[in-house]
Write a structure and sequence with these properties.
InterPro entries: PGBD (IPR029526). The protein is α+β, with helices and mostly antiparallel strands. The protein is built from 13 helices and 17 strands. The protein is elongated, with a radius of gyration of 29 Å.
Length: about 475
């Protein structure tokens, strides 16, 4: 909250000045959160045309008009969207050439700090990846990747860690190529990512679950040195990790489904076990804490040529521990995408705004999952649809009366023109003797070129929309 008030809102006001948005007045905390509440309302009841929300008369498509104008004018809403940024424009201009992710990097760091202070996770954490949806080449989104298994397979990839007991994402790490300059970069791309995600819980004895992108004996050994246990899947199709016998899977060829092999070894002075199970596919886990004794009984469908059959067998207990938390990220992703979300209603070609919609959707999904886990017992069964309705209603009621609404109608423009306001407006039209209208042009008070615009603080002098307006605002004219 402090970062939004002290940094994001001033950055939006500064960006509005840089972009020369007409009739802009400073954005306040209450108005900003009311703006977010209206986006939540749109995600709750999506429409194909954003203009429907400001209609006051019923139509065939919208029999009960939403009448957003009672809370915020359409022009003000679009102006905030056009000026929205998570970083100060001066910081972006100074660093975007060397770091294309500078518009969101600072916000991600503060986002992680807020999540860390908001919740104490359980003993098991799950590391996986999630995607910020790609919207096309016009967005120029940096670090676009493709992961077929994700609901949005193309987009910005974020490595994440979530609490396995509540499915709440509690930390983000931007996936990028220049990992060497980031913390723990000397450990390699995979291990450095795992260490950055799990850093707040070093020496706590928690257990890290991860899929085959992260899993290796070396990674498990490094985590153990930092005071964390781990259960990780390992890649086994094209190659085996170092320190693992290459002929290990051959011992299970021809064996019945449910057969398993376990090996115990010491890697970098860390004892660990490797367990391979012959299931529908060959599965392999490396663990520094799991049990390889007999676990639960499972029944799976096994395909053999054109036929399928049921196979019931007991698998090692370490597979039960891994299976209990490996789907945490998918549950969180499904809560973001099981109904219209912010990225569906924020139809924009700006990748920065698209990233902001991803952060909003993530926060809303976390809030819903937290309510299901920690809310009043009699209300934990609330549906996601009802939760979102209550969320946007409470936000509107909370911030509406703190907003000083300025109407955009022409008859009300004169009510807020004064020496402290700098609204760029049209000079107006004149008429020839034959009553033919024409646009009036005055000399710009800075560059002396003819212009059809003026500032509300000096209604008798012209002012260009380009660099002259910026110079006028900073008082250098």
């Amino acid at each position: 909250m402090d970062h939004i008030v002290d940094h994001v809102i001033p950055s939006i006001n500064a960006n509005a000045v840089v972009r020369c948005i007409e009739k802009w007045h400073p954005l306040t905390k209450a108005e900003y959160f009311l703006w977010i509440a209206l986006w939540t309302y749109m995600a709750w009841l999506p429409c194909s045309d954003r203009g429907f929300y400001w209609r006051t008369k019923p139509t065939i498509l919208v029999p009960s008009p939403y009448n957003f104008g009672q809370w915020m004018s359409r022009r003000r809403f679009d102006a905030i969207l056009a000026a929205h940024t998570l970083e100060h424009p001066a910081t972006i201009a100074a660093g975007v050439t060397s770091d294309p992710l500078v518009p969101i990097r600072g916000f991600v760091e503060v986002y992680n700090e807020n999540l860390l202070n908001a919740m104490v996770p359980g003993r098991v954490l799950t590391i996986d990846e999630t995607m910020n949806q790609w919207v096309g080449k016009v967005s120029r989104m940096p670090n676009v990747k493709k992961i077929i298994s994700k609901p949005h397979p193309v987009g910005q990839e974020f490595k994440t860690v979530a609490d396995s007991s509540t499915n709440i994402i509690i930390r983000l790490d931007i996936s990028e190529k220049n990992f060497q300059v980031k913390k723990f970069g000397d450990q390699g791309a995979v291990i450095s990512t795992v260490l950055r995600l799990s850093e707040p819980w070093f020496a706590t004895g928690r257990t890290i679950l991860a899929d085959s992108w992260f899993g290796s004996p070396s990674c498990a050994a490094v985590l153990h040195q930092y005071g964390l246990y781990s259960i990780m899947a390992m890649k086994k199709r094209s190659h085996w990790p170092r320190l693992v016998p290459r002929d290990l899977h051959m011992k299970l060829e021809g064996e019945p489904v449910g057969t398993s092999i376990s090996l115990v070894s010491i890697v970098k002075d860390v004892p660990m076990s490797i367990c391979i199970l012959r299931d529908r596919k060959m599965q392999c886990l490396v663990s520094t804490c799991g049990r390889t004794t007999q676990g639960s009984e499972v029944t799976h469908v096994i395909k053999e040529g054109n036929r399928s059959r049921f196979a019931t067998f007991h698998r090692p207990a370490v597979f039960d521990d891994y299976g209990a938390g490996k789907g945490v990220m998918d549950i969180n992703n499904n809560n973001r995408d099981n109904m219209a979300s912010y990225h569906d209603v924020m139809r924009t070609h700006s990748w920065e705004v698209r990233a902001f919609s991803f952060f909003l959707a993530l926060a809303e999904a976390n809030a819903y999952l937290a309510w299901r886990s920690f809310g009043p017992v009699e209300q934990r069964s609330i549906t996601h649809f009802s939760f979102r309705e209550q969320l946007c209603t409470d936000m509107i009621n909370e911030y509406l009366y703190a907003v000083n609404i300025v109407e955009d109608d022409e008859e009300d423009v004169d009510s807020y023109r004064n020496n402290t306001r700098h609204d760029l407006e049209s000079i107006g039209k004149g008429f020839l003797k034959d009553r033919t209208p024409y646009s009036r042009q005055w000399k710009c008070q800075i560059c002396k070129k003819k212009t059809t615009l003026r500032c509300s603080c000096t209604p008798t002098k012209g002012l260009c929309k380009s660099n002259c307006y910026r110079l006028h605002l900073v008082g250098k004219q």
